[in-house]
Amino acid sequence: MSEGKGRASEPAADAETFLAATDTIAALRPELSLLEAGILAGLHLELAADSRSFARIFGVEHALVLRAVETLTGDALLTVTARDPRTQRTRYEASATGSAVLTALAA
């Protein structure tokens, strides 16, 4: 998956697509924070599949992203695939439950 390099300068339509996907996920799963929904949307749109990339692309503190990833993992929406012990960069993918939520975006 792409880590979203170069996406910051792409047209505003990409931002609109991301925001629409985030809003849709938030509506499907109202218990999620907008950051959590955004992480799922970023994964779905192949903007970021790890915590550091998401934090950098969207200008969010890495610690907040890590906390949201942990919540999504606890809610069984994400599966952590790797974690760098030094930087805490956490790579993740959608779990079966998370994939079902993301499939609703394609409909």
Q: What's the order of the H and E elements?
A: HHHHEEH
Count of helical regions: 5
- The strand count comes to 2
At the fourth level of CATH, the homologous superfamily is Winged helix-like DNA-binding domain superfamily/Winged helix DNA-binding domain
CATH topology: Arc Repressor Mutant, subunit A
What class would the helix/strand composition place it in?
A: mainly alpha
* Helical content (DSSP H or I, runs of 4+): 55-70%
Tell me the count of domains.
1
Low-confidence stretches: 1-12
Q: State the name of the first-level CATH class.
A: Mainly Alpha
Task: Calculate the terminal CA-CA distance, rounded to whole Å.
Answer: 21 Å
CATH architecture identity: Orthogonal Bundle
Strand content: 5-15%
Radius of gyration: 13 Å
What is the 3D form? globular
Protein name: Formate dehydrogenase subunit B
Write out key terms for the chains shown:
single chain; 107 residues; Arc Repressor Mutant, subunit A; disordered N terminus; Formate dehydrogenase subunit B
Your description of this structure?
- The chain has 107 residues and is mainly alpha-helical.
- The protein has a single domain (11-106), classed as Arc Repressor Mutant, subunit A (Orthogonal Bundle).
- It is 56% helix and 10% strand.
- A two-stranded antiparallel sheet has the order 1-2.
- A hairpin with a 6-residue loop joins strand 1 (78-83) and strand 2.
- Helix 1 (12-28) crosses helix 2 (34-44) and helix 3 (51-58) packs across helix 4 (62-74).
- The longest helix has 17 residues, at 12-28.
